What we know:
By secondary structure, the chain is an alpha+beta fold. It has a domain at 7-225. The protein has a 13-stranded mixed sheet with strand order 6-5-4-3-2-1-15-14-13-12-9-8-7. A hairpin with a 2-residue loop joins strand 14 (201-210) and strand 15 (213-218). Helix 5 packs antiparallel against helix 17 (637-643).
Amino acid sequence: MRLISSSFFVIALFSAFGIRHSSWTAQPQSTRLSLYLLSHRIGQEQSETTTTADGSVLRSHFEYLDRGTTVALDSTLAYAPDFTPLSFESHGKSYRYFSVDASVPVASKAPASFTLEGVAPIAAQGLLVRYWLAHGRPASIRLVPSGDEITVREVRDPLIGIDARRGPLREFTIDGLAWGRQRLWLVPARGTAEGEARNELTVAAAVTTVGVLGFEALAPSLDLLRVDTLIEASTNARLRELSAEARATPPLQRDTFALTNGRLIDATGGPAIEHATVIVRDGRIAATGPSDTTSVPRGVPVVDVSGKTILPGLWDMHAHVGLAEWGPVYLASGVTTARDMGGEFAVVTALRDAWRDGRTIGPRLLLAGLVDGPGPGSFGHVTAANPDEARAAVQKYKDAGFQQMKLYTLLDRPTAAAVIDAAHAAGMTVTGHIPTGLTMREVVGMGMDHIAHLTVRDAPGSDALRDTIAFLKAHGTVIDPTLSWNELLGRSPETPIESFQPGIRHAAAPLQRLIAGANGGTVTPQQAHDRLARSLQIVKALHEAGIPIVAGTDKGVPGVSVAREIELYVDAGLSPIDAIRAATAVPARVMGLASDSGTIAPGLRADLIVVDGNPLERIADIRNVRLVAANGRLYDATRLWSAGGFRP
């Protein structure tokens, strides 16, 4: 982007925004932020502010490279000397699937209101904080054009304290701008005393999200700060906050209780048991069976679930967990185990430990360690250019307790082979994408155990498909097709998301708007239907041949998309019980945990859900989660939605 410096253009721009050109115009002030996705430096935000005595204009160009795709957003925010917005324009994308198209030619200037859409530009978040400070720190601020209410708070003890060039940093949190809490650090623009006196603060660092993935920004003056150090500190701070907040959402029962008079679908493949009892003791299933023959021991708390259905907790086998808020949202959706498929190392390990230890609310988290080839288009910060680096990456993840390795697209053949061999030697399995220079058959032949997404491209019913299926079956390959994510990305703009994903109503308002921007562009409803139907036929053929299918969602509606994935398997022709098993028993088996969870049987971990209705007769009832037990802690789903910032 060519930044604006012409005084003639500035005068015209101020006129367009209704700002009178003063007798003086300050020299434009430029700032730059380095942008990071999954701790990998991928681009920058360049901003320029032109100021007169009557107002200012911030123009920002936000741009990064995500796996070979350029993502760019151009924004202009005009504001008065007290930071009251006068107008706002923002057009482009904040993530490769999600568009931003906001236009507010004349802002309302209403009290406690600010004009911004989404997390970018980051520099505008800095102006939002300065507005909050200049206007007496209002309890909430209404965003325009969305109408959302957000809150800003200043943190008393900043996680990072000093900018080496400009002095002490001030830390702020923002809730409501995106799903989850954002963190922002501001620094005096002109030296400590003068900058503080004038409230001339600029953004030094930010920890935020984009496309529900972890996203960070650092000013050049903080380039010596390791971004993963900032991420780790921010995550731990949020977990401490949520630990206190979790006390407001205590479990209904803890470790020992009985569910009685419900319909039991234990996911073993056997018939449902009507009017069943499930007894939990010390976090494990102690007994199951018909209520009239399964006695509840004296002193065990009883929860009557008459008219409802008891099932094992669901699994999401393709997650990208970037926020602590995922924890209660997952449980509210019925997901008690998730496999992260390439999150920020410090985030996913901290969340895994906090959820496991019960310090905050969340599911069991299994981890697949992402490794890509080097270069500007690589995904994540762990890369390997040769077999030695591949083995080192595997060791890093193994030492941190990861269960799997995840291959990505830029790995070459020798490096991919080294990842697979080292993972197997370490007792880990391998999942992920097919590297660009390899075919599916080649990488499966090298030992890849699972494949992410539906990479089978043969025509339904063809000899080629039958041959591919025979090859996969011979190698015991597991597929997580992420149909719900493909459906969302491939939908026609004419098709409302609510028509196939009613669970989006739970999502926080900014996340709903973000997801609403994802679609297949010019695709028609019929074309989208036909493409999805083809994928459904392939999934049915894979399942009928005995290829393990496991439910995964990628970056759909957090938690909620698991139910849609299960529904799509039924649409493909799987029986309801087989679709349910794809999100319960089958994932447990392929992850080597069938003796611990995935079904409801004595001795297994007490991961259970209770839903209204009967999913064997109407698979959509899998959405109607009312109670969820995670490792023996029984929660009310309604309260969990709210704890995660979603709507009940």
